[in-house]
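Q: I'm teaching a short session on how sequence maps to structure, and I want students to see two examples side by side rather than one. Could you give me a first protein with its sequence written out and its structure tokens following it? Keep the formatting plain so it prints cleanly on a handout.
A: Of course. Example one:
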Amino acid sequence: MPFEFIQLTPVASDIEQLGTKEKFWFHYVDKEANPWLFKYSRAETGEHWSEKCAAEICHLLGIPHAEYEIAQTNGRFGVITPSMISGEFRMVMGNEVLHSSSTDYPEPFQQEGKPVRVREHTVPRVIACLDRHTILPPKSSYDLKGLNAADVFCGYLMLDALISNQDRHHENWAIMLDNETGEQFLCPTYDHAASLGREMLDSERDERLNTKDQNRQIPCFVRKARSELFKTKTDKKPLSTVEAFRQAVEGRDAAQRHWIAKLQSLTEEAITQVFKDVPDECISESARRFATLMVMENRKRLIENDYS
């Protein structure tokens, strides 16, 4: 069945505008008390369908994730997501976590509303931080038996490689802190809209889908996807998304076996269905086909250990 496409008419008094950002909190009248967030999709992008499809792929792989639904308000596309924070919990972003545990990690800082890329945001540092016994895996209905928080984060990096998500910066992962008990849990993964070639114009998609130039085809295109994680703090460029996953699972046999097994069980039919279920008014046929083939190519690379 097609994904639900919600036409949202929020009550003005319920809207809490978040400064100049293109999103706002609102409350459903007949649903739970927790607020929901509406995130506008920028013009000429597919941020709404890419976010939704990424969440559905998370579900198929058993990766704890934020829930998203495609929505529209005031004639503009976006997604809605329920707040993951309730009760005495608060979210502590990755940069705060790393700064508190590493003497040389820069203090949390933003420039013009955008996270600052820092070379200290390395795979070994993040994995070592999440390996601490004080940080637990996310609370989830998915099978995470035998995995610690760092192992689950490896699943997040596999997702990034699969969908070519290039936005795993140090504010796009977090821990949940229970202020009453002091317990800490890795937060479910969130914010995956910078993926699946969603920013590409259909004219370029069509050209890449039909060209005989191998340098323009999808296998070459997906190899350009870069993470926001570095191998070492002296590196000038961040790792590719696939290299980041490889670095994370190196020497972590349980995590590698778990996530690759999940990936092997993800069939091409299931991948195709995810994109078929996006309502026609929300995605073009070129975008649907291109994103499907991207995921299939990345799945093949990961299973075959093709880290080029």
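Q: Perfect. Now a second example for contrast.
A: Example two:
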Amino acid sequence: MDWTHYRFLSLWPLPAPSPVVYDALERAEDYPRWWPQVSAVTRLDDTTGVITIRSVLPYDMTFTARETRRDPAAGVLEVALSGDIDGRARWTVTPHGSGSLARYDQVVDVNKPLLRRLALPGRPVFRANHRLMMRAGRRGLLRHLEAV
């Protein structure tokens, strides 16, 4: 098993209609306003940006996200990731009851040297760190959507 390879799945049931949620998620440059763990998003061009994140553990991760698919009709946003992590991430936003469901799928390999060295003993902690970040992101998006 490659201890530096991760698959994550997060499901965010949200009370807002799927087009509203999709609109918020496609504006990555706004993430730092509502997602506390996203400390910076710097646009490089129309499809690429550099993102810096930090969750509970005291380390930053910086990576480039390059859009590979933007499909509002299907509710899909997908990016290729490179830098401290390599891989892909995908939001899929669909109607769900009277609101929507935002599904986040991420498959990545960790490149950051410290995290690679601590891959085996740190794996459960790194996974918990990701869960905490995603939980905070959902709460932040809920507040953001209420203000819209």
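Q: What should students look for in example two?
A: Point them to this: The mean pLDDT is 97. Also worth mentioning: DSSP finds four helices and seven strands in the chain.
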